[in-house]
């Protein structure tokens, strides 16, 4: 029924214009932000899930940094232990030489034992100088029951513990000098035991390094997969949004044209009265 006081056609056209313009604004916001969920009302459930996934990625990325630092600590420790092993092998050679019958007591005391004693002190120097961020690695409690997080739960971690190393602990009193043939024989046994101890320590460090390496690879895989899952939920599909924006743009233009036409309807009805 054509009326003058109420322009129902214009109201309908205006309603669709506002709706299309709002949808067009939403699409532009998605393109500008790159996110499918610009406001919580866009997808409340998706926002909750996507945010949790992004939080997990953040935790895993920090785990990766922690694992890298742990690997660096282990590499520093292994390098020091390898150097101590080299020193002990030289000390073994000196002890064997001192125990030999063709060496005089003077040679044992002045030459062989002098170098042997200096090498024993060098072990202490290596131990004390092997540090990470100011913390001694081979002595003290820094590497005793240290936990490195490797997951998103506080219960998922690698516990790292390395034995304390010292020249006195490795050589004791019987391996501290080779000034006589009998002392040299005792030193041979003690140095051999020390080499075995250092070898076992290096094997433990190697096992930790292997564990850290596999954990690092697992973390990288988790970051990749979880990031992909979060992207599906949170990120905007540019092609799909662009296609929707084009459709909304056409609808908006059509709504403007319809509103213009509807606004002219009362004027057309007045012509009937004038006639």
Care to give the gist of this entry?
This protein is mainly alpha-helical and 275 residues long.
Sum up the structure in keywords.
mainly alpha, two-stranded antiparallel ribbon, 275 residues, 2 domains, 7 helices, 4 strands, single chain, f41 fragment of flagellin, N-terminal domain
Number of domains: 2
Per DSSP, the total helix count is 7
Structural category is: mainly alpha
The total count of strands amounts to 4
What is the radius of gyration? 39 Å
Average pLDDT: 87
Unreliably modeled segments: none
Strand order of the largest sheet: 1-2
Q: What is the helical fraction, as a range of percent?
A: over 70%
Shape: rod-shaped
Quaternary: single chain
**Main sheet properties:** 2 strands, antiparallel
CATH-assigned homologous superfamily of the largest domain: f41 fragment of flagellin, N-terminal domain
CA-CA gap between termini: 19 Å
Question: CATH fold name of the largest domain, please?
Answer: f41 fragment of flagellin, N-terminal domain
SSE arrangement, N to C:
HHHEEEEHHHH
- Give the CATH architecture of the largest domain: Up-down Bundle
Residue fraction in strands: under 5%
The top level CATH class name of the largest domain: Mainly Alpha
Walk me through this protein's architecture:
The protein is mostly helical and 275 residues long. The protein has 2 domains: 8-34 and 236-274; 62-234, f41 fragment of flagellin, N-terminal domain (Up-down Bundle), CATH 1.20.1330.10. 73% of the residues lie in helices and 4% in strands. The protein has 7 helices and 4 strands; from the N terminus they run H-H-H-E-E-E-E-H-H-H-H. It has helices at 8-33, 44-99, 105-129, 167-171, 181-234, 238-263, 265-274, and strands spanning 131-132, 135-136, 146-149, 157-160. It has a two-stranded antiparallel sheet. A two-stranded antiparallel ribbon has the order 3-4. A hairpin with a 2-residue loop joins strand 1 (131-132) and strand 2. Helix 1 runs antiparallel to helix 6, helix 2 runs antiparallel to helix 3 (105-129) and helix 2 runs antiparallel to helix 5. The radius of gyration is 39 Å and the shape is rod-shaped. The mean pLDDT is 87.
